Amino acid sequence: MYALCLFSSTGQSIERVLSKNISGLVLTIFSNRLAQVAANKQVFTQYGRGVERETLRYKPDGHIATTFHPESLGSPLTHEWITTDFSESLMEFITPVSNDIPTLLSQLQDIHHYAHSKLDQEQLWPLSMPCAVADEDDIALAQYGSSNSGQMKTLYRQGLKHRYGSLMQIISGVHFNFSFPESFWDSLYGEQNEQQRQDAKSDAYFGLIRNYYRFGWLIPYFFGASPAICETFIQGRETDLPFERLNGTGTLYLPYATSLRMSDLGYTNSEQSELKISFNSVDQYLEGLNRAIRKPSEKFSNIGVKEDGQFKQLNSNVLQIENELYAPIRPKRVAKSGEKPSEALERGGVEYIEVRALDVNPFNAVGISERQIRFLDIFLTWCALTESDPMDDCELNCWKHNWNSVITEGRRKGVYLTIGCDGEKLTLQQWVHRIFDQFEQIAKVMDEANDSTGYQDVCNELRDWIDEPELTLSGKMLAAVKEKGGNGQFGMQLGDRYQQQYRQHNYSVYSQKMMDQEVADSLNKQQQIEAADSVDFEQYLKEYFAYLK
């Protein structure tokens, strides 16, 4: 789906610039920027991080749970930390923003502990690709109560079901929210008025996003963890992927795949492939997004919006709402009450970014490890400090190709990534070794600021993974799946192990009282929202989408 292509619309070669950086022939923009930021060591202790982890509830027999979201966990519409995604059985755990990695992970552990204590005989599926699903009808749409906003959330999911099918929507991932502190921008830009700072931050975050598209295939290479699937996942679906079957099991796999979650089996939308939304500025991004929201779709029109008095989707446009735009990274701003995401971006610019390319880490009870977070700190800092030319349509197409190569065969040695739309090639290993030199420079100054060796330790470990793909998460996982006798057996054994860890965990950030109080508060908030509605649902939708006319 994605690719690396390093020529700007002006024809300047980013690869040429990076070659100079690496050889030390010139004092590069990257080196200057890193030195500016590193002059204030507090910068590296103030990064903002948050995690959203998705996980399916499943029954002891390994099949998806068909029960409702437990009321003992509060209202998924209003709970701060525990909600649902597409389905009643697809839970989502959300941490607050934290500046400290151990605190962030402790929050996530506390949430897992509390949630699991309310699940009775059910468990939390530890893999990105779903557990066994006998029938798509077993996947119940998430419910959010009788309020207009709650009904709209469910109807949006109804539209996704009609457009793409339910199976695709219950793939689990981990979203990593990340922001630089004001001290980071102070180091780079000095004193600025409010508008200047807002514009500078938005431009820099979009520069980060462009470099993420160019180089973000590193994430599925190192941390992709979905090389295999249960055959029930593709029941009745056509695919061109050359799957192999694990003997005597219902497990299908690609021998060198890293992240089938990110492949065409995952969340794809052929209607979106022609949108060509620009990442060159916040204004161009919003222009493309608003165009997509307003663009009619013949394919989705055939579904119908309403039938026999029942809504089937919010509308028949390419995107029902902004959230439907698939992207492995998103620019974000916290929205005010009643504000759409694009309106928040237009009002205040980019506040943080959301990394969406992480599979659930099956070797960690909460789906993400400290090692992964430290790498993301390094990588996202590098993306922000490295020169980032504008992207033209050619480059947009190129990065899709390279991401797809890494996703489907990234552990095959000798996979080539095309640098430049016209075709110089380097192997994945050659390219990663080259940019890792700069990662290590960042790791060194981060460790100096934190009085540790944690970031350099991560770089040292991942250096080995470059040339030994069997050490990557997907490599380790596929070996374990084969050893355990299939994807389902591997997942269930991990689920049993993590169930014990959740039970034995002691609260370290929250408490039982705090968690119980949030449940009660969320239920009260939902009731207040429902009581405050003053128009019927159909009128609510008309008013919500009035801006499309």
Spell out the blueprint of helices and strands.
Elements: H1 14-23, H2 29-38, E1 48-58, E2 82-84, E3 90-94, H3 101-117, E4 123-124, H4 148-164, H5 166-169, E5 173-179, H6 182-189, H7 194-215, H8 218-223, E6 228-230, E7 244-245, E8 251-253, H9 282-294, H10 298-301, E9 306-307, E10 310-311, E11 329-332, H11 341-348, E12 352-359, H12 370-385, H13 393-409, E13 416-419, E14 424-427, H14 428-450, H15 454-467, H16 473-484, H17 487-504, H18 512-532, H19 537-544
Antiparallel strand pairs: 1-3, 1-4, 1-5, 2-3, 5-12, 6-8, 7-8, 9-10, 11-12, 13-14
What fraction, in percent, of the residue positions are helical?
40-55%
The CA-CA distance between the termini, in Å, is: 33 Å
Radius of gyration: 23 Å
Give the amount of beta strand, in percent: 5-15%
Average pLDDT number: 92
Q: Number of DSSP strands?
A: 14
How many domains would you count in the coordinates? 1
Overall 3D shape: globular
Describe the structure.
- The chain has helices at residues 14-23, 29-38, 101-117, 148-164, 166-169, 182-189, 194-215, 218-223, 282-294, 298-301, 341-348, 370-385, 393-409, 428-450, 454-467, 473-484, 487-504, 512-532, 537-544; strands at residues 48-58, 82-84, 90-94, 123-124, 173-179, 228-230, 244-245, 251-253, 306-307, 310-311, 329-332, 352-359, 416-419, 424-427.
- Strands 1, 2, 3, 4, 5, 11 and 12 form a seven-stranded antiparallel sheet that branches. It has a three-stranded antiparallel sheet with strand order 6-8-7, with no helix packed on it.
- Mean pLDDT is 92; it is low at 1-27.
- It has one domain (50-492, 510-548): Creatine Kinase, Chain A, domain 2, CATH 3.30.590.
- It has 19 helices and 14 strands.
- It is of the alpha+beta class and 549 residues long.
- The longest helix has 23 residues, at 428-450.
- It is globular and about 65 Å long.
- Helices cover 45% and strands 11% of the residues.
